[in-house]
Amino acid sequence: MIKSKKQGILIVISAPSGAGKGTVIKEMCNQNSNLWVSVSATSRPMRTNDEEGKTYYFITGEDFKQKIEENYFLEYTNYAGNYYGTPKKYIQEHLDAGYDVILEIEIEGAMNVKKIIPEALCVFIMPPSLKELKRRLESRGTDSKTKILERFKIAYHEINEVTKYNYVVINDEIEAAADKVLSIIKAEKCRVDRIEDVFLQNEEEYMHELLLDDKDFTNKSLNLE
Ligand code: 5GP
Question: How many CA atoms lie less than 13 Å away from 124 in the CB half-sphere?
């Protein structure tokens, strides 16, 4: 009766640095193979657990500026002194192929995407508490004290922007949080504005005619046994 759009949906996931968004997304991908996570470009230095082309494409500030000129990014921002941007390439391609595409980006970028693509689904992942957020930021052991404080201040500001998102999920337990975001995606796919076509199968067409002519509407005449 109904044919839904084959195209995937664009999901923007933001969270304050240290809220565990990366781990939640990894768990989501383990549970659902229809997700494709976009890899951003950044000018920030690599951390020990980073992998070129997997966590980010690491480029210089100069190269980043050049790419801005070339209109290479869907959106970009300067966060804590470094550039971050979503390459346009591959996103539409993956959506058209039916993948649900995830952008793991901060709030300014998320709002810019929402302006360009209003139907994007925006999900905010919240840490269980500010105390836990501070602990997680400190336990990384990769950033200096000044950087940690800077990230903590940004995180505090970001938490206050949560109402700009469509959904909020608290990450107190990774599997549960991943499960919630996947449920949100499932629900989003059932929205009526994702209906591409409404059509009638043979029996339904017959039923339609009976209803139009106000004829006897019984199981027998519909031949549904
Ligand atoms: P991190 O340095 O901790 O990897 O990332 C810092 C922040 O930049 C995170 O909130 C992350 O989601 C965000 N970010 C990563 N890639 C992009 C991007 O392409 N665009 C924007 N706007 N933010 C990004």
Answer: 22
Q: Enumerate the CATH 3.40.50.300 domain ranges in the chain, comma separated.
A: 1-36+100-190
Say whether domain 39-89 belongs to CATH 3.30.450.40. no
In the chain, which stretches have pLDDT less than 50? none
Given this model, what pLDDT does residue 208 score? Answer: 81
Q: Mention every residue, 6+ apart, whose C-beta is less than 8 A from residue 50.
A: 56, 58
> CA separation (Å) from 148 to 36, 107, 135, 142, 160?
30, 19, 10, 9, 19
Ligand 1 atom closest to residue 158's alpha carbon, by position in its atom list: 10
pLDDT in tens, 84-140: 999 998 899 999 999 999 999 999 999 999 999 999 999 999 999 999 888 988 887
- In this structure, the strands spanning 2-4 and 100-104 are unpaired
User: Ligand 1 mean position to 74 CA, how many Å?
Assistant: 14
Question: 3 CA to middle of ligand 1, Å?
Answer: 36
Name the residue with the closest Cα to ligand 1, atom 5.
17
